[in-house]
Amino acid sequence: MTEAAEHEEYDVVIAGAGVNGALIAKHLTHAGFRVLVLEAGPGSAWSLDGYSRHLDHFYAAASKGPESPWPPAVAAPQPDTADIRSGAGYFVQNGPDKYGSSYTRAQGGSTLHWLGVCLRMLPEDFELRSRFGVGHDWPLRYADLEPYYGRAEHEIGVAADVADQAHHGIEFPDGYDYPMRRIPLSFSDQVLADTIDGMRVTLEGESIALQVRSYPAGRNSVPRGAYRPVGAVDADVDRHDMITHLGERCAGNTSCTPICPIEAKYNAGKTLAQADRGKLRVLAQAVVSKVSVDPVSGMVDGIEYQRYADPASPRHTVHTARGRVYVLAAHAVENAKILLASGLGGGDSLIGKGLIDHPALYAWGLSPVPVGAYRGPLSTAGIEDLRGGAFRARHAAFRFDIGNDGWRATTGGPDSSVVDAVTNQGLYGTKLRAHLAATLPRHVRFSLAVEQLRSEANAVTIDPRHLDAMGNPRPVISYRIDDYTMGGMAAAAEAARQVFRQAGIADCTDPEAGGWFPSVRRDGEVFHYHGMGHFGGTHVMGHRAGESVVDTHQRSWEHRNLYVVGSGSFPTMGTSNPTLTMAALALRTAEHMTEALAARQPIRQGEPSGF
Amino acid sequence: MENRLDQFVRLSALLTGFAPLHLLGTGMAETYLRATDAALPDGVLDELLDAGSLPSAGSAPPTGSAVPGAPAQPGGSALAGGADPDAAAGQAIFGDAKLGPVARALILLWYRGAWTALPQEWRSAYGASPRDVDHVVSAEAYQAGLQWDAAGAHPAGARQQGYGAWASPPAALETESAPGTTGVRLPRQAGAPSVTEGARS
Ligand SMILES: Cc1cc2nc3c(=O)[nH]c(=O)nc-3n(C[C@H](O)[C@H](O)[C@H](O)COP(=O)(O)OP(=O)(O)OC[C@H]3O[C@@H](n4cnc5c(N)ncnc54)[C@H](O)[C@@H]3O)c2cc1C
Ligand code: SF4
Hints:
The complex is a heterodimer.
Chain A: H1 4-7, E1 10-15, H2 19-30, E2 35-38, H3 48-60, E3 92-96, H4 128-132, H5 142-156, H6 162-165, H7 187-196, E4 200-203, E5 206-209, E6 212-214, H8 237-242, H9 268-273, E7 280-283, E8 286-293, E9 300-307, E10 317-321, E11 323-328, H10 332-341, E12 360-366, E13 379-383, E14 398-403, H11 415-424, H12 429-439, E15 443-450, E16 459-461, E17 476-479, H13 483-503, E18 506-507, E19 519-522, E20 525-528, E21 562-564, H14 579-599
Parallel strand pairs in A: 1-2, 1-11, 2-7, 3-17, 11-21
Antiparallel strand pairs in A: 4-5, 6-13, 8-9, 9-10, 12-15, 12-18, 13-14, 14-15, 16-17, 19-20
Helix pairs in contact in A: 2-14, 5-14
Chain B: H1 4-16, H2 20-25, H3 29-39, H4 44-52, H5 85-94, H6 99-112, E1 114-115, H7 120-126, E2 135-136, H8 139-144, H9 146-150, H10 171-174
The complex binds flavin-adenine dinucleotide and iron/sulfur cluster.
């Protein structure tokens, strides 16, 4: 295979075409720098035809989990939640608890299957140690990130109204509003709000009033001002111009996870398509295996990657790409894995250590009246009131996501309900139809995502005994859910029970009846949890080298021309889904890189430390 | 004489509770006929079709042995009297150890667009086809699943309802409630505070 990319010079080489890689590529190309993006997975989602093939794959899949439209290449395997129970698959689960999340290794990354929740972190989330005496403080404050949050909301295209979002001390600049109006609350949200709004629950003696609240969503709605929603994209500029208006509004396909059929939901391909294409080169099917470090200067002098032609085969060729600056944007787990495989971890190094997630509980019930389930974005509202408060000194905070997708995630509805009616209840004909019409529209689902604190024992490591088909290490994951998080789980489960009781919703939460999920036990109570896909903490940021892997610009302390970006940098994650915060950090990093690159002379041959 | 497809659709209507016209409207009838034939040993579907065309109620099960304690349709009326030929045919089918499970698989096929493998005991007793495995028939079949219609919804990922449609009551309710309101209230339980008591956070 000829590799033009090997002979060309780049200012920046980026590993990973997910949201982080795409944002940095976009901004650095527009600042005039030449950028190479090496992407492990196939680039098929970046064309309309390819995207449609993924959609067909989803329709025909027997199980419609988050990974179903996105089968991995042999060369770039990925975790699959279906493997958690058997312990097979890409992750080597070291225990004691199972890590329940997955990600996608295809160009566009995990935003191909994300839900699109774009909450800002609460100001108090950045100051957990100083305010509550637990966890860690960030080296940044809410005010430091605020301007970047606003920019990230415009990059991703977030639909929300500021009026709904100023809670728990979240502040917006005067006159600011989101680029698009909030996504209409579902009928289900409205029915539930009628009862839930004003309801109180008590946590650690503190009485907290609840409210059903619209959340900011990375889905297109009605634009404000001059903002133009970004719909479906095609990497081919001519073909892209022929796509008119597809996906410029969410149309209620009810499948945001795992695939939005019309690309009304944000995915990283949209950002990459907005880069200055004359300055950008994207190589798909190029798996970054190592970074090479000059032993004297400590600077990175190249990135090794494996190029494959056939996604069904591990056959590949090995190449090296060079630039002035390098960025690992391959996802929290893969970033750590690449650093460890390059021999850069070990000893006191924090690389890979401190892995977190939002382990989440499901609660599901049958409303006394129809709520119109199985319609609209998978969710359009949440309950945010239990995300903050003095109780955080004692146990984890949590967030309710209120589903519009009935019991799909919990029991596999509506299919499971149909099977039950036909097979167990013996219904058929008009009675079957009437029974389903009377019950399916009443399905209610909450998921309760619980905060998790950093522990160095929770880690991604590598082990030469566990390799993938390309000979690259598979992530070995040690993971334990501690008492602080289980305290939050207990409070969350109790809050859900109270809400169901007060709303007259029959509580059907029965892990035996639902799909299989891993579980933890505390004081005789068993919590069945699922991962939210919110990986974090594996290359933590901090003020000082010994205590962190990267600085506040996500720049490696040890290798000053290397940036390691994404939620791996998070010291804590609060209860907000991480992508908006990582996008804000990526924009801050891109700004810093632009200044740093502009301040230096262009690199000369044989001078790897030119940055 | 009624052709086999018509017979299949008529039986399917009896089993699913959706009218023949609705079933034909899905465009899936022929595909399902073929998929069902493929998933069954030879002749079994014809037995089922014949049973579905039974002229009168109260007949003995056509083949196989009666299932002791076969689930009677809860609330089923008119089964004994012979007033409702469909109910009689249903009883004959679901009371039959050979045809009952096949009929259930056929219902699930229409509702889900996916074939559900027959129980192992059934296959040991009556034979197994290599196509008798759990599978989604096709992308179109998934989208045509009757379960979405029954729910007043749409297949996840297809037949989108349009921006904001989810904010309105589901179609079945819409006629009953005033526009602009949900028209539906959850009964507030005794002891629960009223909306006005709750401070907004
Ligand atoms: C089911 C689900 C729902 C979610 N919903 C939400 C939500 O609502 N809100 C939210 O904020 N977050 C959500 N998330 C999380 C969100 O998807 C991720 O946080 C986000 O996509 C991570 O971005 P990233 O760029 O760091 O990594 P990714 O998006 O995973 O991108 C990494 C890229 O790097 C590539 N790559 C990997 N390894 C290599 C390598 N060795 N060499 C080269 N390239 C490589 C990958 O193929 C990929 O393209 C969800 C996740 C899941 C699983
Ligand atoms: S509801 Fe449908 S159209 Fe809207 S974002 Fe989700 S999948 Fe896309």
